[in-house]
Specification:
about 300 residues, alpha/beta, Rossmann fold, 2 domains, 13 helices, about 15% strand, binds S-adenosylmethionine
């Protein structure tokens, strides 16, 4: 009997054999409306971080079903989605079929082989580095330094171990692993966590310069640049990013709602209780309707996770 294939490729291909499964793997909802809401929210952050323009060539590492490509590809000259899973690539091609300049390729490993040296203006990687070993993330960051044109920008995020809510999310993973069979290999797609300090080291050793960091949430968000020796241009970009901090950053409300979502998903609070609480909140802005739609979709998809409500 051959050993089970627990590579990134096999694991993520198995999670994307249908559009519903692919969407589920991407944002946990399997619902186009929720995917569009969470995608639109992240796209606002990406626009603020990267200032993408109509003539620019952008790429995405771990494009999934094209949740973010669908938002940004129509605004730029080209968008190249890259993913380890051929099934994800097929789904993103299908969902972006009508968008000129949108293309997607499967990766063979932690390299950006489909992209030529210095061919990209900008790129991003959202909710992907959290699902791989650090060595692979550093290999990708080195590749980012190769494919960006000098002065090009790259945005990425990672779970933030140094934030109390980030730690709480990590502690859940620790407890799960503590309960699992020690003879089994750990899931290659599991959530992994970093401190901001660690990420700064990876960026620097990959040959990139850090222009922006926001770490006051369960996510570390960074914008990095391929150096070109133009210190004045780097400073101008840094000032632009600082002015855009509020739009790039994960907001305090997002952090609070995420912490409360953890109470439902990890600590057993019933979704009905949380939805009632959330629906009574006065907050305005995109976060609250997005979390309400997302939690309602998660509950609808997996009702068996919580006790049935009295009729
Ligand atoms: C949670 S989804 C996020 C998808 C997309 N970035 C988004 O935000 O909608 C993670 C994606 O990363 C891809 N992925 C996982 N490990 C990878 C790796 N080692 N190299 C490239 N892609 C990977 C998965 O196939 C999946 O499409």
């Amino acid at each position: 009997m051959s050993a089970p294939d627990d590579s990134y490729k096999a694991t993520w291909n198995a999670r994307s054999t249908s559009l519903a499964d692919g969407m589920l793997a991407v944002d946990g909802s399997a619902d186009e409306d929720v995917l569009a809401r969470t995608g639109a929210y992240a796209a606002v952050q990406l626009r603020a971080a990267l200032a993408p323009g109509p003539g620019q060539h952008l790429f995405e590492i771990g494009c999934g079903v094209g949740r973010l490509g669908a938002q940004l590809a129509p605004e730029v000259a080209s968008w190249t989605g890259l993913d380890i899973a051929e099934n994800m690539v097929a789904l993103s091609r299908q969902r972006l079929a009508g968008v000129p300049g949108a293309r997607a390729f499967a990766l063979a490993g932690p390299n950006l082989a489909p992209l030529a040296e210095a061919s990209m203006d900008k790129g991003w990687c959202v909710a992907v580095f959290i699902h791989m070993d650090k060595e692979d993330m550093v290999l990708y960051l080195r590749e980012v330094a190769r494919v960006l044109r000098p002065g090009g920008l790259f945005y990425f995020d990672h779970w933030n171990l140094a934030h109390p809510v980030g730690w709480r999310r990590f502690a859940y993973e620790v407890d799960e692993i503590g309960r699992s069979d020690p003879a089994q290999r750990k899931d290659v797609a599991r959530n992994q966590f970093c401190t901001p300090e660690e990420l700064r080291l990876y960026v620097r050793h990959a040959g990139l310069e850090l222009l922006f960091e926001h770490s006051d949430s369960p996510w570390v968000q960074m914008v990095v640049r391929r150096p070109d020796g133009d210190a004045a241009a780097a400073l101008t970009e840094q000032a632009r990013l600082e002015a855009a901090r509020t739009a790039i950053a994960c907001t305090p409300l997002w952090t609070r709602l995420f912490a409360e979502a953890c109470e439902v998903l990890i600590e057993g609070v019933h979704p009905a209780t949380m939805l009632a609480r959330w629906r009574s909140l006065p907050e305005t802005g995109p976060e609250l309707p997005m979390f309400i739609a997302w939690l309602a979709a998660v509950w609808q998809r997996q009702p068996q996770r919580w006790p049935a409500l009295p009729a």
